[in-house]
Design brief:
340 residues, cell membrane, disordered C terminus, transmembrane helix, L-PG_synthase/AglD, 14 helices, mainly alpha, membrane
Length: 340
């Protein structure tokens, strides 16, 4: 029985969650034709445009975090906000369980007077903004698909509304029944929740608009990489693929979301284009989204933020920092990111 109770902590279970999608992707790759790389001037231009657009996305994420930090009265410099955003995404790409976020928390709290829990709150604010922005994009994509498929059955709409009502009533009852425990929990996490308060103001609306723009630009990255290998995703298709890929980041995965991210990209691209997805698309997309930011991030970690000694200190401080996972993707890019 003890083994069953600890199953969710099992390294074997986590390994299965990582290896099954990876094995499926490897099998898929071995059955495909040899990769077709960009071989015309226009295709190379699309790829260069994707690299440039992802750099813009990273800068936008850095500026958004800087705004959240200052709204939360954390006097971090813009250079630290930008630099640690890159370091964080690099860490997410090579460390399991979003270790890059832990790096951001530890390094920024050591360079300012901010408490670690408050810094965690600013990253949580980023995640919430990403979740809402991606949710809006998914609604647009779903609406487009519904138009293509025809109007939904009134009975299905009624069933959906009743199900939502039942879930809302169940949540309200659970809160009322355990309100004292919930209040104690709320008091314990108040330092983390304080940076979320500005999200309910006009400033929060501005940040949300910025988050939507971030994901739209990132969707254009996917579209441009696709064009560089002869695939036309279009605006809706690019949004669909970026949404599926970032939802895959919620699944416990190895560093760089190996397997889960790739499977989601293949599935979504195939669903949108109804054609075989070339291996070159997956390889080039991984290169654009993961490689440059990882190189720059670890260069910054060593040259500006103390290198491996800081990394080891951050890992030792890990148990003090609660999980930053949310049940919705934002993300390396992160997103990620990037993947978010």
């Amino acid at each position: 029985m003890s083994r069953l109770r600890n199953l969710h902590k099992s390294k074997v279970l986590q390994g299965i969650l990582w290896l099954v999608p990876l094995a499926a992707v490897i099998y898929w790759a071995t059955t495909q034709q040899a990769p077709k790389w960009p071989d015309t001037q226009s295709e190379w231009a699309w790829l260069a445009g994707a690299l440039g657009a992802y750099a813009v996305v990273t800068l936008m994420r850095g500026e958004r975090w800087h705004s959240i930090l200052w709204t939360s009265r954390i006097e971090a410099t813009r250079s630290d906000a930008y630099g640690l955003t890159v370091v964080g995404y690099a860490g997410n790409n090579v460390l399991p369980a979003r270790g890059g976020e832990l790096l951001r928390v530890f390094l920024l709290s050591s360079r300012t007077d901010a408490k670690r829990r408050t810094v965690i709150g600013t990253i949580l604010a980023e995640r919430i903004l990403d979740a809402i922005a991606l949710g809006g994009i998914l609604l647009v994509v779903a609406y487009d698909l519904i138009k293509k498929l025809g109007s939904p059955s009134p009975l299905l709409v009624l069933i959906g509304l009743v199900a939502l009502g039942v879930m809302a009533l169940a949540a309200a009852y659970a809160w009322w029944r355990h309100r004292h425990h919930a209040q104690r929990l709320l008091d314990a996490v108040l330092p983390i929740l304080l940076p979320l308060k500005p999200l309910l103001s006009v400033k929060g609306l501005v940040l949300l608009v910025g988050s939507v723009l971030i994901w739209l630009v990132e969707a254009s990255v996917y579209g441009m990489v696709a064009e560089s290998v002869g695939i036309h995703l279009g605006a809706t298709g690019s949004m669909s693929v970026v949404a599926f890929a970032n939802l895959a980041a919620l699944v416990p995965a190895a560093p760089g979301y190996i397997g889960t991210y790739d499977a989601a990209v293949i599935f979504a691209t195939n669903a949108v284009t109804h054609a075989k997805v070339p291996v070159s698309f997956l390889i080039l997309l991984r290169f654009v989204v993961f490689v440059p930011i990882s190189i720059v991030g670890f260069a910054l970690l060593f040259l500006r933020y103390g290198g491996l000694s800081r990394l080891r200190a951050a890992r030792q401080a890990g148990p003090e920092v609660p999980s930053l996972e949310l049940p919705v993707v934002p993300v390396d890019g992160a997103p990620q990111g990037e993947p978010a």
